[in-house]
Structures are given as C-alpha cells and as structure tokens.
From TrEMBL:
Keywords: Methyltransferase, S-adenosyl-L-methionine, Transferase, tRNA processing. GO terms for cellular component: tRNA methyltransferase complex. Belongs to the class I-like SAM-binding methyltransferase superfamily. TrmB family. Residues 1-13 have a biased composition (Polar residues). HAMAP family: tRNA_methyltr_TrmB. This is tRNA (guanine-N(7)-)-methyltransferase. The gene is trmB. Its EC number is 2.1.1.33. It comes from Martelella mediterranea DSM 17316. Substrate binds at K144, D176, T214, R215, Y216, E217.
Amino acid sequence: MRKVTGDSQNSTGRAFFGRRKGKPLRDRQARNLAELLPTLAIDPGQPAPADLRAAFAAPVERVRLEIGFGGGEHLFHRVEENPKTGFIGVEPFVNSMAKLLGRVEERTPGNLRLYDDDAVDILDWLPDASIDQIDLLYPDPWPKKKHWKRRFVSQPNLERFHRVLKPGATFCFASDIDSYINWTLLHCRRHGGFEWQARGAADWLTPYDNWPGTRYEDKAKREGRGSAYLTFKRL
C-alpha cells in the first residue's frame, strides 16, 4: 500500500521504487528481518511448486496475493481470518516489512509467505492459473500526470495478473485517488480479460467484506477523500 509502483517506461511492468527504507530500525525489528523473514521468504530464483499450495507450512485450499501491503494491517487481518487460505505478501519497503514481522513474530502463521522486492519477480515466478485473488490496495498513486506511467496498473502487469489468476478469480483494487481509479477501470477494459463486477454505485463505494481499514484510508477520510473498492473477475 503506497509502496509498490509501476516502472518508469511502463513497457515491461518492472517496478520503479522510491525509498526502500525510512527511519532506523529498532533492534527487535532488525532481528526479525535477519532471522524471521528468511523463514517466510519466497525465493523466485527457485522453481515454483507445481501446486502452489505446497509452498505453505500449513494445509491451505486457496492462494491469495497482496501486492504492497504497507504496514500489514489488512494482510495480517486476512491471514488470521482465513487459516485455510495461503497468503503471499509482497512489500519492498523495509520499515513496512518490519512492522508486519512484528505482528507475526510470536505466532508465525503457516499460511503466510513473504517477498521483499519487486512484485513482478513473484508474478513471473508464479505458475499459470495458480492464484485465487490478487489485492492491490492503496498503491502509490503517482498523482502527477507526468508520472502516471509509473503506476503499477499497466497492460504488462494486467497481463501478468491474467496469467496467474485462475479463471473466475478476482482482482481487487482500492484507492482514494480519482485519477487512479479511472485509470484502472480504463486499463482493465482495454485489456479485455477482466470484468468489473459493480452493478451500481454501492458496489464500488462499499468496502470489501470484513474490511479492517488501513492507515491510508484513514488519512484519506481526514483529508476529505472517499475511496473506491473495485472488484474485477478474470475472464
């Protein structure tokens, strides 16, 4: 959330990163990154299992990918809420990864795997039709028009989504930035492999079921901006 972005050329979908690290880490956070993260990390340099469910320590029935999980509020909530779903969380910002690890350090969930670099690495590593849902929630909006080409939603990345999602699976996108909401709707329509599921305004103005909220959503509300919650079905 507000961390993983699209590439500056927008021709390959490779990530364009700003800061990778913010304020200095506390000793406990640094220890978690050094010791806990490797136990949960995915190595895209190794072949993916034919059945992606085998990548998790616990038995799971579905697999869900969250790209740019920020402080991990939403991801951790879903991990605890859905023990039979395997979650892959991607977040390149060191301080955000440290925050999530602080949430899981006492009881490491068997249905969670993590990656701390470019989300495209994971998308290219995943087997075809292996993912039941992709969440892209409050990504960096790159609000200036000259920077829109850096947004993560692009034709190359939508093609990646389409490849790894199962037929009928969902892509969920949330944002408080009108231009990015419209951008995503237009790009999904242009791609042709995604069907927007809204039938009325309430469908995209209402948060997802059991939505925990995020700090970015709270900030948007304080600043007078509403949010949209878009759901697309992979055709």
